Amino acid sequence: MAPIKFSHVPHFCSLQRSLLALALLTLLAFTYVSFTFLRSSSTDLSPNPPKVAVIGDLVESSEIYQSPGKNVDEFSEIYHLPDLFRLNYAEMEKKFKVFVYPDGDPNTYYQTPRKLTGKYASEGYFFQNIRESQFRTDDPDQAHLFFIPISCHKMRGKV
After folding, report:
1. Which burial class, exposed, middle or buried, applies to 122 when counting CB atoms under 10 A from its CB (0-12, 13-18, 19+)?
2. Which residue range or ranges hold the Exostosin GT47 domain (predicted)?
């Protein structure tokens, strides 16, 4: 009996073909998902989007609710529902709180300099604005966001 000889295909050819087939399948899958998303989003858009009911006392608040004299379409190109955005933003301004952890190690934590200049001035202005913000709270139980004032400049070479 003679041994059976298999045709020997070089390994890189089968690997190349497999990768090419995988890339082609991925491209087809992304194309299909993109077209279905575009088709569904174009049918969902209507000239008059439905109004969303807002629960709570925000609707009754006269300082938040937009008066009829103002331009309603002012932000219509940016926000899908500008009125709802205004209500949510006003609620965020009332309730949003940030807890800033107290300063720790001076070699790691940001220490506010007397003068904010140089390439790390934006970091200093950000930290200063957070510390002086109306959103800051000293009670971590009230906070929605927690901020650790670590300086990226002082962290260089520590990791």
Report:
1. exposed
2. 92-151
